[in-house]
């Protein structure tokens, strides 16, 4: 392992600011990046350089010695950089964003290359995203589950409507007739006899839709469990089978005629989507730009009669 100069820069920032989050702000990198640099430096030196506490990073004796050794050389290097790079552009800020994989593909993927700042995307469970946001590991999350943390704020910006879709080759006429009468119990039994797609992470959509519209829990197992909702839509396109998904993720396939919107339910099942941020942030300009992309991209579903 070779000593990395950035580890020493990060060490100096932590020593002088007293916290990982303040060091991250000073260096314009993420807090996980600061932790990684410090852990790498401690592994390289073989010594613990700070005692971690909830509010402050307290330098150990080895840390104090290290600081005294590196302070003057680092200042000289910073002076060299300032002298020879006076006309260089300011370093790009880095924003950490938490959301589900499908939302990223639908909303941000095509815009990544044009963003004027660095972006780190994290996928995962919503409760963990809220915790990471509160701890400073994320700067913005997109979630249908607002939390109660005192340091966080949630702003609603759209709704996702959960709908029943089918592949374009699926014969849905018998189902539509049952739903119009309405004979919901028979419609539910009819649906159970057909091919179903789902994901391991989003069985909640199917369960909630089924419970609200058929007054029972779904007592069947989908035939195919695929990685994500985008995979479901690709599998159903120009094929046969059913699934329950958010409308915004299948809007383009619906417009192309690759899948069919079968039923929105007796009354639409909708989830409110929220932006979650910390109440105090130095990245408000970048966060506003990301939020504008989400708002401009979202499509509201049109009412469909069974």
Automatic annotation (TrEMBL):
Pfam family, one: HTH_1
Residues in coiled coil: none
Keywords annotated in UniProt: DNA-binding, Transcription, Transcription regulation
Listed CDD domains: PBP2_LTTR_substrate (cd05466)
Transmembrane segments: none
Signal peptide from the UniProt entry: none
Residues annotated as domain HTH lysR-type: 3-60
InterPro entries listed in its UniProt record: LysR_HTH_N, LysR_subst-bd, WH-like_DNA-bd_sf, WH_DNA-bd_sf
Family affiliation: Belongs to the LysR transcriptional regulatory family.
Protein name as annotated: LysR family transcriptional regulator
Organism: Dyadobacter beijingensis
